[in-house]
Prior knowledge:
The protein is mainly alpha-helical. It has three helices and two strands, in the order αααββ. A two-stranded antiparallel ribbon has the order 1-2. The longest helix has 32 residues, at 65-96. The termini are far apart.
Amino acid sequence: MDFEPITRPLTDAEARAEAERIITQSFQPETPVRHFPTSFRDATKVPPYGDTPPVHQDDKRIVPAWAAGIAVASIGVGAGSVGLGCCAWLVLQGLASVTLYGVLMVTLPFAGLAMVATAIGGAVSKARSVSKTVYEGPVVQNTQITNTSTTRGMFSRTRNDVR
């Protein structure tokens, strides 16, 4: 068999003869079935380093940069929403298992701290409020109440001025 590549186009007669030869050879029952490998694995070891410089690879993206940016942003938003959903699930699982004793144990340190702060604030307030000032003289108290009322309708206003 001649497997040399043909460098010129075949004439109609040659093409017809070649087609008949291929068809008759394909449908002959005495032709043994030949198996061809469908994959190849190169078992040679790759050197850890070499003297070949890196090959420049042209940028052949078919996706515009803005579309890639939107895709990356949408992946980030999706991952963030999954994180928020997991956080909400954990919080709700924790709230579902809340007991009175658990709440009391969590709030006990805060209540103790608030009690100590209130006691210190009260002591400081009492210490500051001690005054030795004595007022002498007549005391005059005058109270005057002016009542003006314009009560009409649903919305009304009553002013009491105390002087």
